[in-house]
Design goal:
The complex is a heterodimer of chains A (810) and B (229). With 810 residues, chain A is of the alpha+beta class. Chain A is built from 25 helices and 24 strands. In chain A, a hairpin with a 7-residue loop joins strand 1 (57-64) and strand 2. The longest helix of chain A is centred in the middle third of the chain and has 38 residues, at 326-363. In chain B, helix 5 packs parallel to helix 6. Chain B is globular, with a radius of gyration of 17 Å. In chain B, strand 9 and strand 10 (217-223) form a beta hairpin. Chain B starts with a strand and ends in a 6-residue tail after the last strand. The chains are: A alpha+beta (810), B alpha/beta (229).
Chain lengths: 810, 229
């Protein structure tokens, strides 16, 4: 019996080539998209699961929200958090800390910049899983001046990965012994590490007395929790603890949160994450679209199968007369559906196999598809094929098997009406999804391009950046370097600063709010005289810093000079947050307390107000910021040039090599840095668009199949209409109208849903477009055009056929 | 063999009630060849569908082999049908996707007959209806006469007690029509009971008895020859 079903199924696939192709390929494209999306989603969701203690490790992060200041969220915490919290909370059984030390590493005369080096506790290896290549991780970091390198870092710094026991230099005078080499970290972790330096080396690495007393948030701190710890409940105890341990009211200013390490990658986007994390919303969006595509493909299948019912009705009748039970027929048609879904699955696997490398490269993420070797993957694929086959096959199976044999053999199809109603509902549903996706992609595109083209308030073109000038050599040679670089005729300006646009503004100073006298934090940027000039930042009032205004210079009060007067330049947001308006702030003074007793402080006079500019990402609101002139703290150089960039960059490189031969140059282009902020977003947008287009395409495919079926079924009617005088246009309009009604209904369903979802999405953006009704109208029009072109072309072919042919056909 | 007592069949739509069969009483004995005649719409096909258990009567009793089957479930009817009744249709109703061999084999598959036996029986029937040389062809590749032979073969394969033929010659030219009628006559002579709906007076003469229907009623019954003599 099975053989007979199989034969029938295969032959009916072959005889109905168009429908079969639409079914099989539509489903295959749907499945392939679904598999690709799932691979991406599962890889995003599987971060950090490979650490044996993954379920028991949390990271503590710090949110700062001083009253009157904008919130700052750090992925790090203070030096003492680890020890203090482990002592306080029985649920926390151990802690480990990592502190990023941007440094240079290598051998004498061959130093490299190393931004992913961390000074860490020796027990870091108990927390995270590292694959050791050489050495013993248990003892690797127990002594000062020891380092563990990843394989590729060892190769880069020392020319070999077999470097156990060798020494390397960090900075200008620290020697480190390599005590272990580990494999490079896999992709699926939130950690980004090249080198781990023992904790006992911290003093040398920071080259600063009393670094333990520094309250800054520089330490990634992880805890191991006791089994069965309720992390949320534990987190809820922290504010009370802080109130008691630090001071009353502290929890208004600071919140410590605990993050499970498995959640960090998708849900955490604090400042100073080790690498750019993913976004749970992307995972949701991609999962949704994968499901929608599959759903649309399944609907095609159901629609075409029931539409073809009249063709299969006779077979059903004959089989029933010959003694088939209804259950036989249900099994037969379900079997056919399963055959198609498995066939589609095989094609889909081949498609995925073929395009996975390109897709991986495109999304910048290595995805693997072990559909032959990995049992769970095989089972999932078989499971999906089964579900798709059963879901899309069950309705046609029950529909077809319920035909009354006496009637269908006479050519009467009594169930046609209800089938048509369902088919129409499915088309409406499918088109509603397609319209929603069209609206969603249009709004997403418009929003992102709007955000990208906002007037930044500064000029990012033709600027070269030199980074890592905060080193001893950098600060010592700053002026010489500047002068020599500036000597080039194409270079029009050179500015120094602590941060350049596109960077995070994380450093802030305390000041007293002039109105309320409350302490507030405000981000600070250290700039040189010509900074505003180089970036073309406009002044609302006042003046820039300059050699003529020596009194502007910033500094730190000392016991000898406990009161200091400095000049500051603020942005408009700062003026507003301080309670003034526009240039009213000029000449006003701010008090900046420097110690708790108030003995040492600075008085800052506002000497200039600059226009607000988007210093950081456009996702963030412009922060109140003040600029100070503090030449000993410049850590980068912004070089404005004109004309050919090659000559300029060559000049800069030569000057650098002449003046700072021992420090590798880090040169970037401002507009690259700017674009880099949105690369990931752009990529995701492209994928989203691509798959939306696919969904729409599959929906059209279904419409085409259904329309061609309808046209075929109405051949006789078309013939009769033509005989009694209908024109080709009449016929085209007649058939198109039927589908237009469905598209109209689809629009009515899609619009409010799309409106609701997309308005919510837009609230994620600080600077956003308004919902424009035109987007909806245009999407509707596109949907109508697609339907008209599809149905119209088929109808036109049918209408052009000589009527006698269509009549003879019946 | 079969007896219909006061069989009524109503078709209802929202506004109209059609009485397709109106208290019909018919007896068919084992080994009889009965022709049913009448104008279009007089209820011939409804009667045949009722006899064939494809349709259930609205009222009345239907005794098949002594059992009243009028109110049996679809599944039970299907069981009786598949082992006792063979159908031949005007439009052949062969499955286009199956070959001649497979079409004839199909009823045996539903009866779960073993493969070896199936092959043997299908070959016998193919020989009997003279279509063995076309066993691997598909229905569309055959002429109308040949298709009807396949349909007859399929009706015979289960060795049914009763063969129901709904205008078996309606789609055939006279030569092919005659051939099919001769085949049916031969089957009848071999012991099969046959009930046939036809429009053709000539073909009705092949039967032992002709029943004329008019508006759902039996109007005349006419013996072709004295069967009981």
């Amino acid at each position: 019996m099975l053989k007979s079903y199989l034969i029938i199924a295969l032959r009916s696939l072959l005889t109905q080539r168009l429908y079969s192709a639409i079914n099989v390929f539509g489903l295959a494209i749907g499945l392939a998209s679904c598999i690709l999306m799932s691979l991406f989603v599962f890889s995003e969701m599987g971060y950090d699961a490979y650490h044996p203690k993954a379920d028991n490790i949390v990271r503590v992060v710090t949110d700062l929200h001083p009253p009157g200041s904008s919130e700052q969220r750090f992925s790090t915490s203070q030096y003492r958090a680890g020890e203090a919290m482990t002592q306080e909370f029985a649920e926390l059984t151990a802690y480990t800390r990592l502190r990023n030390v941007r440094t240079t590493m290598g051998t004498q005369g061959k130093m490299f910049n190393e931004s992913l080096a961390y000074v860490t506790d020796a027990n870091v290896f108990d927390f995270f899983s590292f694959d050791v290549v050489n050495g013993d991780l248990k003892t690797a970091l127990t002594r000062p001046n020891t380092v563990v390198l990843t394989q590729s870092t060892a190769l880069r710094l020392l020319g070999s990965s077999n470097v156990l026991g060798q020494t390397l230099m960090a900075g200008s005078n620290i020697t480190l012994e390599v005590t272990a080499v580990i494999k490079d970290l896999p992709d699926n972790t939130h950690l980004a590490i090249n080198a781990l330096v023992s904790w006992g080396t911290m003093g040398q690495m920071l080259d600063r007395e009393g670094w333990e007393e520094n309250p800054s948030f520089n330490y990634y701190t992880y805890f191991e929790t006791a089994n069965g710890t309720d992390v949320e409940a534990l987190e809820a105890k922290i504010p009370a603890y802080l109130e008691e341990a630090v001071r009353e009211g502290i929890s208004d200013v600071i919140t410590l949160k605990l993050q499970r390490i498995k959640d960090i990658y998708l849900t955490s986007s604090q400042a100073f994450e080790m690498k750019t994390n993913g976004d749970i919303n992307t995972v949701y969006a991609f999962s949704t679209i994968a499901i929608l595509i599959l759903l649309i493909a399944c609907i095609n299948f159901m629609n075409l199968s029931t539409a073809r019912a009249t063709k299969r009705a006779k077979e059903v009748g004959v089989r029933k007369v010959m003694g088939a039970y209804k259950s036989h027929l249900v099994m037969q048609f379900l079997g056919e559906a399963l055959l198609i879904s498995f066939l589609s699955m095989i094609i889909a696997c081949a498609v995925v196999e073929a395009i996975l490398p390109t897709f991986s490269q495109f999304i910048g993420k290595e995805l693997t598809f072990n559909y032959l070797t990995d049992v769970s993957t095989v089972l999932s694929l078989v499971g999906i094929a089964l579900v798709v086959g059963i879901v899309s096959g069950s309705y046609p199976a029950f529909y077809l098997s319920a035909f009354n044999p006496a009637k269908v053999l006479k050519g009467e199809l009594t169930r046609g009406k209800s089938g048509a109603w369902l088919r129409k509902s499915l088309v409406i549903f499918q088109f509603a999804i397609a319209i929603m996706l069209m609206i969603a992609t249009t709004i997403t595109y418009l929003q992102l391009s709007y955000a990208r083209n906002i007037d930044l308030g500064y000029d990012k073109e033709n600027i070269i950046l030199l980074d890592r000038l905060g080193t001893d050599a950098g600060l010592a040679n700053w002026q010489v370097l500047k002068n020599k670089i500036q000597a080039h005729p194409q270079i029009t300006g050179v500015a120094g600063s602590s941060h350049h646009p596109t960077e995070l503004l994380a450093d802030s100073y305390q000041l007293l709010h002039p109105q309320t006298q409350e302490i507030m934090q405000m981000p600070i940027i250290i700039v040189s005289h010509d900074y505003f000039d180089v970036y073309n930042i406009e002044f609302i009032g006042g003046r820039p810093f300059g050699p003529a205004y020596g009194a502007d210079e910033f500094g730190h009060p000392t016991e000898l000079q406990p009161q200091l007067e400095v000049g500051v330049i603020v942005n408009q947001a700062a003026v507003k947050s301080l309670g003034w308006q526009g240039s009213e702030a000029l000449g006003k003074q701010l008090r900046m307390p420097f110690d708790a007793e108030g003995k040492m402080s600075m008085t800052a006079t506002i000497v200039g107000v600059v226009k607000d500019h988007h210093f950081s990402s456009l996702h963030e609101q412009i922060k109140p910021t003040y600029h100070v002139y503090f030449p000993v703290r410049f850590s980068n150089m912004s070089i404005k040039y004109e004309g050919d960039v090659a000559a300029v960059s060559q000049h800069i490189t030569e000057v650098w090599q002449e003046i700072m031969p021992h420090q590798p140059i880090i040169m970037d282009y401002m507009d690259d840095e700017f674009n880099a902020m949105y690369t990931e977003e752009d990529r995701q947008m492209t994928i989203f668009n691509l798959f939306s287009a696919l969904a729409i395409f599959i929906a059209c495919l279904g419409l085409f199949g259904l329309a061609s079926f309808t046209t075929e079924r109405r051949t006789k009617e078309i013939g009769i209409r033509k005989v009694i005088g209908a024109s080709v246009m009449d016929i085209v309009v007649l058939l198109s109208m039927e589908f237009s009604k469905l598209v109209l209904l689809a629009n009515i369903i899609a619009w409010p849903i799309a409106w609701y979802v997309m308005s919510n999405w837009l609230t994620n953006f600080v600077y956003r477009i308004d919902m424009n009704p035109m987007i909806f109208v245009v999407s509707a029009l596109v949907a109508f055009v697609i339907a008209w072109v599809t149905v119209g072309s088929l109808a036109s072919v049918a209408a052009h056929t000589r009527p006698i042919k269509s009549l003879r056909y019946e | 063999m079969l007896a219909l007592k006061n069989i009524v069949k109503l078709y209802r739509t929202e506004s109209v009630e059609t009485r397709a069969l109106d208290k019909i009483n018919i007896h068919v004995r084992k080994g009889e060849f009965v022709a049913i005649m009448g104008q279009s719409g007089c209820g011939k096909s409804t009667l045949l569908n009722t006899i064939g258990m494809l349709d259930q009567p609205t009222e009345g009793s239907y005794y098949f082999d002594g059992e009243d089957v009028a109110n049996y479930s679809e599944r039970r009817l299907s069981d009786i049908r598949k082992s006792n009744i063979g159908f031949i249709f005007q439009s052949f109703n062969l499955i286009d996707e199956l070959t001649v061999f497979e079409n004839i084999e199909l009823p045996l598959i539903y009866q779960k007959v073993a493969k070896g036996e199936r092959q043997q029986r299908v070959m016998e029937v193919l020989e009997k209806v003279g279509i063995a040389h076309r066993k691997d062809h598909f229905p569309q590749q055959l002429s109308g006469g040949q298709q009807q032979r396949v349909a007859v073969g399929r009706a015979l394969i289960c060795r049914p007690k009763l063969i129901l033929a709904d205008e078996p010659t309606g789609n055939l030219d006279s030569k092919n029509g005659e051939e099919v009628m001769e085949m049916l006559t031969k089957l009848n002579q071999e012991g099969a009971t046959i009930v046939m709906v036809t429009h053709s007076d000539a073909h009705a003469t092949y039967a032992n008895r002709t029943i004329h229907l008019f508006d759902g009623n039996v109007v005349t019954e006419q013996m072709q020859e004295d069967y009981f003599a």
